[in-house]
């Protein structure tokens, strides 16, 4: 049973990284500047790399001879357990950066906690990912400050992005009986333990960015249980195409 | 509408401790912190360095092609090179 819980937990984390990595990769070649194009492509590579580590470990835990590609690409839409926030379209550069900031801030604190997991493989993945996440936070936070406290136009766009994104943030802190069991075993971490520091850092950066945090919104959730927005379908069309057209192909 | 041009920065990397920072290239950034981050992304993705300097290009004073005669030609004096010695045999670390 424990292994089945761990498998599901790993898939949730891996799906988050994969879908977000894919979303960000859509910026490659289209960023406002060459420097930012490389920066966001690095983000995408970091997230896809994290998902590889997690899928590979999940495949080993599952023990059915499936590999990372099969866990990542060969499944139905409702078998993806990523949170809704990460499948939303990129929007403008402001939305992309705001989402990266809010999510990376969460993930950085998440990986820092995960360093102490009793599961050695998870702790090792956390050690690598924590450094990547620290840079994601640093880079996106600097942009949030500059664009929020920039021109009237950039300020308005960042405020709109924050207001649109906030309704998807509660899902990051959800837990169910699978996670509670793993948390009790010291394997998983309780996201609620990092919620306060996450929020206070967001508020600190928003203050510097002259942005307002409007928290009084209805919270949308469902991705974790496989109930997705229409946008995930479009991602999967592209993401799964190679694997479905040429099954088991190798690079 | 006034065109706002993002400043250009020069990037210097130290590949390992004990070596000098060497010029790696240039990039656009609105300020020093972003220049540092952009340098990290553009020039250190493949373990090229362990330390980065950035300096806005406008702060660099460069010699001009016209200076060539007065600046560099006097350097062609053979006696300024330490080549008139015989190195004794057995001397190490030269």
Features:
heterodimer; A: 251 residues; mainly alpha; Ferritin; 11 helices; B: 94 residues; alpha+beta; Ubiquitin-like (UB roll); 3-stranded antiparallel β-sheet; 2 helices; flat
SS field, number of helical segments of chain A: 11
CATH architectural arrangement of the domain at 8-61 in chain B: Roll
Order of helices and strands of chain A: HHHHHHHHHHH
CATH architecture descriptor of chain A: Up-down Bundle
Detailed description of the structure:
The complex is a heterodimer of chains A (251) and B (94). With 251 residues, chain A is mainly α. Chain A has eleven helices and no strands. Chain A has one domain: Ferritin. The longest helix of chain A is centred in the N-terminal third of the chain and has 29 residues. The model of chain A has no long low-confidence stretch (mean pLDDT 96). With 94 residues, chain B is an alpha+beta fold. Chain B has a domain of 54 residues: Phenylacetic acid degradation B (Ubiquitin-like (UB roll)), CATH 3.10.20.520. Chain B has a three-stranded antiparallel β-sheet, covered by helices on one side. In chain B, β1 and β2 form a beta hairpin. The N and C termini of chain B lie far apart (62 Å). The model of chain B has no long low-confidence stretch (mean pLDDT 87). Chains A and B meet through α2 and α6 of A and α1 of B.
